[in-house]
Each structure stands twice: as structure tokens, then as C-alpha cells.
Amino acid sequence: MSQWLLILTIIFINVKDISGSWEEWWTYDGISGPGFWGLINPQWSMCNKGRRQSPINIEPDKLLFDPWLRDVQFDKHKVSGVLQNTGQSLVFRVEKDSKHQVNISGGPLSYRYQFEEIYFHYGLEDNRGSEHQIDHHTFPGEIQLYGFNKELYHNMSEAQHKSQGVVGISLMVQIGEPTNKELRIITSAFNKVMFRGSSYPIRNLPLSTLLPNTQQYLTYEGSTTHPGCWETAVWIIFNKPIYISKQEMYAIRRLMQGSQLTPKAPLGNNARPVQPLHHRTVRTNINFNKQGLPASSNCPDMYRNMHYTARYSRKARTKKSVACKRKMFSKKTCHKK
Q: Residue 233: which of 151, 285, 160 has the closest Cα?
């Protein structure tokens, strides 16, 4: 390990002299990848030392049903901003001086959060790409919407360091017939941001319509999944995926990490490995205790209709409420039939 630290120190000093910023140098592989983020910059030490890190693997048999979780609310305003290839990810950032900001509230949130940016994580193959996993099942991609606590803090830069500062909304991406036409406002611009540093303006994006048609979700307390891994995020993972076509996935997989002169490797496979849960609770508003309902019923069941993966459906229908089996839930909060 000491040899690695020596090599890292020499390389990082040289790179810092050239670029002047670690933000421009971290990657998703090698000695600048996730395992070394906490060593690259002292301010990112939580990436290596934190115990509430994200992403995580969701274990369905350990979910806790919480009947007090509310619906998640998004303002209906459209937003404008810039889609940018940063060299590490594809990121959309909203205009700072926009007249109509989108607020996120409800769900597990105690405050209103102002939408700020979208991160696109995806794989170069269909069997990888998402950061969060469901029972070790990985999706081809994951779109993450970030917002900051506007009631307590002034902006994302301040909020990401503070308690309950950030909300992360996770949308799993599946390949199939697109059901969300508004998403094409972004996907049609993929070929405009082929190389690092390239950007393209996005106008009048209806953020609320990008979400899947569900109010069923999972939630836990974690961190941002990019440096510096600040443990200030409340995560909301929706139960249904959103769909993009094979052509759209092909287009995003053509994006490159480098400039047009030195394109380097493809931008994909930009997912941080899952992190230990460390006894954190993952709650859900999905009531697994509903049994005896016909298959056509609109029962909120994360396993039915292959929302995530079909192999769990029998297990879900026969499982008793997880919350009612856990001592940490009192009788007042434990839902019974």
C-alpha cells in the first residue's frame, strides 16, 4: 500500500501542477478510480472512510414498510440548462437565473429541495451500468436527479456539506420501447456532446414528466456517488424503470472521456461500486403484506409486472410484511391488515 501511495503522490502532484483541479482528473477506473478518490483530495476522505456511502445494493427481504411515507411531489415547471460531457459523466445542470425553479418535496423529505442537476450513469454492455442494485441485479443505466435543501441552505455547494442538504432521485434505465417522449429532449442531444468539455443547451425540459408512472419507492440515507462522497443525501429510488431505445443507448455509448483530438476511452461504465450498508435502514411505502388480491389488481408491489426482475414475484407474494417481523418497528408504526 505504501508503494501505491508513493506513486499516487508523485502522479497527483504532477497532474495538479498541470490542471490545478482534482475535479478534472478523477475517473471510474485505475489509480484515479473510486478506490482512490479519498486519497486524491483530503476533502474527499469520506469516499474511503465514510459509513453511510452510496450507492448500495437493495436487499428485498430486508426492506422495512413505513406506512407514513408520503407521495413525492415535483413542481410542474419546465427547466432550461446545459447538457455537458465532463469527461467523467454526462451531466445536465439547470440555469442558475431561471425564473421558475423546480421544487421537490414530500416522500421522506422534511424540507423543500430545489432541483439542480442530472447525472447519467450507464454501461457499455446491457448487463451493467446502474449504480444502485436490486438484489445484486444491475440495470443498463441509472439517471440521478439531485436537488439541494433550499429552506436551510443557499445553494448546492453549501448544502452538499450540511445535514439533510441533498436529495437524490434515482431512476433505473431499461432498454425497450420508450414510454416517455419528453426524455427525447435530452437523448436527441447525445450526439452534440461527444467529447469532454462539449456542451449543448436544453430548453423547456418538463422535469416532472421524466419520472416513471408510480409513487412506489425505496428510501435511505446515504451520500453523493461522485467525489467527495458527502454523507448528506436522502435517496429516493422509484419502483419502476424508465425506458430508452436501443438507438438512444447506442448514441450515449459513443460518448468519449477525452477531447476530439485525444478521445481516450468511452465515457460509459461510469458507476461507482456498491458500498456497505453498515446497518442502515432501507424503508419503502410498498406494502408487501397485501395478499389474496387478483393478479389484475393495482397492488403496489415492486415485484409484480417485472418492474425490476421477474424472478422475485412468487417470493414477494408469499412473504409476510417485513416491517412486522422487525423489533425496531413499534406497534404504532407497524402496519397490519
A: 160
Closest alpha carbon to 90 in 115, 121, 116: 121
145-157 pLDDT, tens digit each:
999 999 999 999 9
Look at the alpha carbons of 304, 308, 309, 315 in this order and tell me if their dihedral is positive or negative: negative
Q: What is the DSSP letter of 11?
A: H
Residue 252: pLDDT band with limits 50, 70, 90: very high
Span 75-92, pLDDT tens digits: 988 999 999 999 999 999
Cis omega (within 30 of 0) for bond into 55? yes
Q: Considering the entire predicted model, what is its pTM? A: 0.82
CATH homologous superfamily for the domain 26-284: Alpha carbonic anhydrase (3.10.200.10)
Domain boundary assignment for the chain: 26-284
Which one from 113, 119, 153, 303 is the annotated catalytic residue?
A: 153
- Quick one: average pLDDT of 294-305? 40
- In the prediction, which pLDDT does 23 show? 67
Q: Which of 88, 37, 5, 56 is nearest to 229 (CA)?
A: 37
The three cell numbers of residue 331 are 406497534
Q: Dump the DSSP string for 103-161.
A: EEEETT-SS-EEEEEEEEEE-SSTT---SSEETTB--SEEEEEEEEETTT-SSHHHHTT
Residue 119 annotated to the active site: no
CA atoms within 13 A on the CB side of 172: 26
- Report which DSSP code applies to 9: H
Other Cβ atoms within 10 Å of 303 Cβ, number? 22
128-137 pLDDT, tens digit per residue, is: 999 999 999 9
The alpha-carbon radius of gyration of the chain (Å, integer) is 20
Residue 67 has pLDDT above 60, yes or no: yes
